[in-house]
Amino acid sequence: MTDPLHSPKAPSMRGRRRRILSLVNKREAARVSRLLRAEIVGGVLVMAAALLGFIAANSPLADAYTGLRDTHLGPSAIGLDLSVGHWASDGLLAIFFFMVGLELKREFVSGALRRFSTAIVPVAAAVGGVAVPAIIYALVNAGTPAAHGWAIPTATDIAFAVAILGLIAPRIPPALRMFLLTLAVVDDLIAIGIIAVFYTSGIELLPLALSILPFALYGFLVQRFPAWFARSPWAPWLILLPIGATAWALFHLSGIHATIAGVILAFLVPVSGRGGTQLAETFEHRFRPLSTGVAVPVFAFFAAGVAVGGASRFPADPIAIGIMLGLVLGKPLGISITTWLLTRFTRADLDPAVRWRELIGVGALAGVGFTVSLLVTELSLTDPADADTARLAVMAGSLIAVAVAAALLVRPARARATRE
Question: Which CATH superfamily is domain 19-419 in?
């Protein structure tokens, strides 16, 4: 089969240029289209939940909202007496990270990241899109305790970004849609590594060692009986869920952020098992509504509840300036410059359907950092005023990034007709 990353007119010789940002194949394109539609729905739900949380925190319902968020639930004897807001960020987001882990594994095993030629561009662009915002924030906040929040503007919220892309540029080339999706997936992988390495306060070895047992049991079951778990509507809930919850609880007690447990559990699920069973894909279809319809919206509802007239120092504080500059300028600069360097100094070239203006617009859209950015805010900034300042900056920076992306991606009807 002809490699779609190569131009059909290009001679088969050393030194030929390779097209980048092209779709891998029709099957992959169809899968990406289905995933994009799901993310659009999820993005709309998250936006609505975040808006409701923000309104509740700035309305006569503020006391009731805060009381609900700070209500503690769970068994205190084993260290799981957590607030509702904490359950949302550590518990429900583990479901979101489980879905991220499934998508990551599928991309590495059978998707765009399985070959170096298709993986190098989104991987390099994601690294650039993480490094530049982090550097900008670190420079603005150098020498202050808030410098620990350098990772806040590095994340891309894929549900938000894809939903907004579908609204402002529904006819953008499919290659760019896949680029954004793959870029965000790699971005999530980097964010997972950052959380695990830089935002783990201390490690308790006993619960960490004990967590190996449920992880091992979970891995054995999904690898040994993938067809059964794929067919049965109840086995994953009655068998795998308690095992996964045990692993999550032990991870939480170990001091490592518990959402990482969701990623590990996802990586244990086989992409293709015995008899051609694709358990990872089955789990994606089965559990994505729980993630996009419940877990992430509930987290957004509580995370976005910042009182404008509260303790925050938004927008003049260096924390806010660093986050907004990182999201609005750092993301598109890091992504675009990295991609330009690849086309300038390697044999790679952009697909003819992709324009640099649109690529920069997609890079700007990657500055919509919400879910993971708000999570990193909770992990990195302990002072309530700093945290509120950062949350408002994440929301404001994301809105500005949308406006910049719209200016670059939205074309008049005449221009679209000319192009078509």
Answer: Na+/H+ antiporter like domain (1.20.1530.10)
